[in-house]
Each structure stands twice: as structure tokens, then as C-alpha cells.
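User:
I study polymers; will you set down one protein's sequence and C-alpha cells?

Assistant:
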Amino acid sequence: MEKPFAFTVHCVKRARRHRWKWAQVTFCCAEEPLCHLWLQTLQELLDKLTSRPKRLLVFINPFGGKGQGKRIYERKVAPLFTLASITTEIIVTERANQAKESLYEINIDKYDGIVCVGGDGMFSEILHGLIGRTQRNAGVDQNQPRAALVPSPLRIGIIPAGSTDCVCFSTVGTNDAETSALHIIVGDSLPMDVSSVHHNSTLLRYSVSLLGYGFYGDIIKDSEKKRWMGLIRYDFSGLKTFLSHHCYEGTVSFLPARHTVGSPRDRKPCRAGCFVCRQSKQQLEEEQKRSLYGLENTEEVEEWKVVCGKFLAINATNMCCACPRSPSGLSPAAHLGDGSSDLILIRKCSRFNFLRFLVRHTNQYDQFDFAFVEVYRVKKFQFTSSHMEEEDSDLKERGKKRFGQMCSEHPSCCCSVSNSSWNCDGEILSSSSIEVRVHCQLVRLFARGIEENPKEELDS
């Protein structure tokens, strides 16, 4: 019997917990012309898939996480890109902000996307470089808080190789390098909101995951002093910050996101093909058109809300901020592309109650179901520290800032400290008083969102 003619098709196979695996299927044909016809037809179909990238610029951070970025790319990602006939240009970074600066200088028009191999810090570099380059080309002043930012035409792919990989976990459902590489190859596209953070008409940073003041700001500030400890420094600083139990006085002003569908407590998470994101964007565009044509001034019609008090933490999340330790995240029903941020205010409370709140992030219980926790869906917000308002006139507060907190005059349940720092996606901001605005679907990722698992739905 004559040996049949054969060809192999490389494909994606879904595995458990949102992982994708590379698979291959070999087809046999009895006749050579039939085999060639199949190959020709399949190739023609593939050529019509214009969403699939053909040329990518890859930035690799060899120092992030456990320092495995280069190894992960070479072993798990590069072979798949070769199979998919994707050509790449690779830049292995040697210093901080190199990727961001490179995106301002090189010709990015010849690429179909940018890929970062690293953690959330590396992704943030790519994000800032790509948004900044796009605004510069469009003549938009990023320092203007009310500027309408222009979306970038290029998608960003994330190959997770960091310590938490929050952005990847929240948009794919896993921090598996092979899964992310396959999402890039098939050309998935996921629009994502970005928040701009300003102080006195100066852009401080962009944020896509967490803006945290108080608890999370103190953790990141303390951990920066302990880099010699490695990744365990986050656990150490977290415990130290929890035991310190500092609260901060200030004023939060926010503009509710009335255009959005749903609420932070509706227990409806953002998933692939999300209706909430699609419908919210449509309603936001209609709202902006009415404002543009002078039918109404949206900000005057919608009333700003003001909340004052002492807070253990103030968090603003553009996504659920899920990670392996917190599978549901800081705000389980936050949406990636609805043009809003979930603003979470944790007021002064006892250590025990704050611990109960933190534990809720690791289980299925509602972490907002406490009297001292408030959550709002907003499209803009401002924060002013009471210390910043009074620091020119209040000598006592200045003394505390200089010599440290005098706990003798406060009960042990909660020390009121002058000022905290903002944790912006893992980076410390220089000012505590900020103005934040959410830009709806400003960037796109090589992802499709977390896919619904029918079995998981039945179990829940």
C-alpha cells in the first residue's frame, strides 16, 4: 500500500483554569493533488485573518520577578511565534524606562503590536511609552487633565514573567506564558480603560489596575526600602503596615459614572464579549455627543459627590485586580472597558474588622458588606489630604511629619498619620493630592477577556 500524503495543522486546545495549550492534528490524504488543495485552501483562509499579527516588537525584562523573563520567552514563546510565521525584533532591556524611551524614538508603524515579557512594571512602561507616543503624534497635551486622549492603533501583548502579573491574570484568567502567546498568535483584541493621574495640571502617571492610598500605598513605599529581601518584602511590608494600622484624613470628590450598566456589587464579573463594557461605551459616546453639540454640559448636570473622613485605605480599580492569591480581586465586578473605575473607601475601623475585610479578598464573600466600607462606580475623582490643606498653618502636624507619629496621644486601635503615598500600579506617586480621569477603552491588548467556563457556572 502506498504511503499517504499528509499535512499537520497547529491549533489551540483549551485546558483547565483558562489555560490554552498548543496542539497539532495530522491529516492524511490518499492523493497528492488533494493534499495540496487542502493546504492551498487553508492558507488562503489564514491570509484573510487580518487581525493576526505578522511582525512584533518584543521587549524582555531580564530582571523582573524571579529573573526568568528571557528563559521563558526563548523556551515557551519564541517556538510558537516561529510556527505561526511571526517575525520579531527583540530588545532585552538593561535599565528602567528603556522600553518607554525606545517607543518614543523608534519607528513603530512597521509593527502589528508590542509584546512585553515581564511583570506589571514592564507592562506599565510599554503602556506609558505607547500612549505618550500616540499623544505626541496627535498633538495632544498630556498635562491637560481634560484632554481627550487618542487611542493607540497598536495592541499590547503580555507574556507574564513577574511577581504578581495582575494585568495578565485579570484579562486572560491565568498567568501562563503559553496561553498568552497563543492569544497573541490568534490575534485577539481586548479594549481596556486607562486612568490619567494629574496634580496641578501635570501628568503624574497612567493607571490600568490599582490606585491605592493608605494601606496599599504604605506597603509599596515600605517595600521599596527592602528590595534586598526579594519578593518576600511584599509580605513583610504588608504585615508591618497592617500592624501599624495608620489612618489618613482627607476629602474625596467624585463624579458618578451614570453611563455604566450595572454596579460594583452586582456580582457580574467582566467576561469575554462583555455586554456591560459594550453597552456602557455606547452610552458614554451618546453622552459625549450631547455635550459636544451643546445640548447639555455633562459635568454641570451630573453632581459631584464629596466624602470626608479618616480612611485606612482608598482604592480605585479599573479592573478586578485578580491574582493567584486573590482569584476574585479587589473589586470582582469591575469592568475592563466600561469607562469607569470602582472607588473603594475603607473608613477608620478596628484592626480586627480590617482583617475581616482583607480576608474577604481570598474567598467568595462580599468584601463590601461592611459598615465601614463604601464603593462607588466613578468616571472622575479627586483626593485632597487634610494634611496638605493645613501644612502651612498647622505647626503641630509639621512636627509629627518631621519627627514621626506620636502614638501616646492616640488609642492603639488606629493612629492618625499626616500623609500617605499613592500606589499607582506598583509605583509611588510624588503627590498625595491628585485628580483622576478614566479614559474609556484607550488601549487594546492581545487578549479576549476571561472566558466563561460552563462547569464553573454550574458549580457556583
About this structure: Residues 392-412, 455-460 have pLDDT under 50 and may be disordered. The CA atoms of residues 418 and 436 lie 22 Å apart. The longest helix spans residues 120-138.
